[in-house]
Design a protein that fits this description.
By secondary structure, this protein is an alpha+beta fold. The chain contains 13 helices and 7 strands. A hairpin with a 5-residue loop joins strand 6 and strand 7 (395-401). Residues 319-403 form the Histidine kinase/HSP90-like ATPase domain.
Length: 409
């Protein structure tokens, strides 16, 4: 058999697959964005707070500055760390609401019209964004209306600059519009992430169902093949064993059945292990000695250094032995047989052939020995089983793993 050149496999990118925007990932992204906004806009508002300290009452105004900017700092640290953002963020809108409502009390002369807008105005948008992140949509919506309403009242007082109704309404409307835009954006992003989480959960559930169904199907195929190969065939062969060769064949099938029962019980412990391809050749050789010592077996060197998972090797060996048993039963007394175990590049190839009676592969067959014990068994582990036969022209069974469709680039 000609050994093909190894297939060129594309070099995978070092960058991993893109992660879907799940709810947890989105919350971390929003937390980082909030932390950046807090640092940037909080730093912009701090100079205005310092400049207005001359017209404010020192103890109370300092408490407001320390409380509000301390809440900004805690939110920024939690956002960058990705932890406890949901605890730190609600502090900002609560402190801000209290500070805005008590603003006239922090001014030294509440009757004196202040020359500028309160410094709280310069961090209003940041506070609204924090409220959108910290609260549920309903509470955040109420907050987006409450803060502009309080500011609308304070802005018209002397301590708030004594602005006209129109001017105060314009400033309040600006905060409402900007806050509403942030609220809508965050709600849409969170809904999209929730939909992704739901889709992933449904996909995982369907995958679990598919795995269980696949495991059930594999167990059914294994039980069918054991019943056919081990019990029914051995009993039928034993009942018809009138010659030494027939009795030897029945004995080998009974021994094979016991071996398969033991290996089936030990399959979970063998999972993850790898065995050389030559192990399949050893198994075929032992069966050949009992069934047909004159059958030709390919040399061990053709198996190469290829290794297979232990469960895959067991499956291929079981299917190959069953093909040899079928040949001994149906090919005829004078049929010549040949066995091959070859490493074709990265593909394991096992061949069982004879020049005996053969059969018509186009006709429907109820023989479990072909359909279950060989074809389904190999296909269920990701390989292929090709059976070429015709009446009077012998039979050749070729097993390959992995399937060419799976191993091609």
């Amino acid at each position: 058999m000609t050994v093909r050149e190894p297939a060129l496999v594309p070099v995978p990118s070092r960058r991993g697959p893109l992660r879907p925007i799940t709810g947890l990932l989105l919350e971390r992204i929003l937390g980082r964005c909030l932390a950046v906004f807090t640092v940037v806009f909080g730093a912009q508002g701090l100079p205005f707070a310092i400049l207005q300290q001359d017209v404010l009452r020192a103890p109370l105004s300092l408490i407001v500055v320390v409380a509000l900017f301390g809440a900004f700092l805690a939110t920024a640290v939690a956002g960058f760390a990705g932890r406890s953002v949901e605890v730190a963020a609600p502090i900002v809108p609560i402190v801000y609401l209290v500070s805005m409502a008590t603003w006239p009390l922090t001014v030294r002369d509440p009757a004196l019209v202040q020359p500028s807008v309160p410094w709280l105005w310069f961090v209003c948008n940041l506070v609204l964004a924090t409220g959108v992140f910290a609260f549920r949509p309903l509470i955040a919506s109420v907050y987006l209306v409450l803060i502009p309403a309080v500011f609308f009242v304070v802005r018209q007082t002397p301590s708030g600059g004594g602005a006209s109704v129109g001017h105060a309404l314009l400033d309040s409307t600006y905060t409402v519009v900007l806050g509403a835009a942030v609220l809508v954006l965050v709600v849409l992003l969170r809904k999209a992430a929730h939909d992704v989480d739901a889709a992933q959960g449904a996909a995982v559930s369907r995958y679990g169902d598919a795995v269980r169904e696949h495991a059930t199907e594999l167990e059914r195929v294994q039980v069918d093949s054991i019943v056919h190969d081990g019990v029914l065939t051995a009993l039928l062969s034993a009942s018809r064993a009138e010659t030494p060769r027939a009795r030897r064949l029945a004995s080998v099938m009974a021994e094979t059945s016991m071996t398969r029962l033991v290996t089936a019980a030990e399959a979970p412990r063998a999972a993850g292990k790898e065995v050389p391809l030559a192990r399949i050749r050893e198994r075929l050789d032992r069966a050949r000695v009992h069934l047909d010592p004159e059958a030709h077996l390919s040399p061990e060197s053709e198996a190469g250094w290829l290794h297979l998972p232990a469960d895959i090797a067991q499956t291929l060996a079981d299917a190959a032995v069953q093909a040899l048993v079928n040949s001994c039963q149906h090919a005829g007394e004078d049929a010549a047989r040949w066995l091959g175990v070859v490493a074709d590049g990265d593909t394991a190839v096992v061949i069982v052939g004879d020049d005996g009676a053969g059969f018509d592969t186009e006709l429907p067959s109820e023989r479990l020995g072909v359909r279950v014990s060989i074809v389904e068994r190999v296909e269920n582990c990701g390989g292929t089983a090709d059976i070429v036969s015709a009446p009077g022209r012998g039979t050749v069974v070729t097993l390959r793993w992995p399937s060419p469709a799976l191993s091609s680039p």
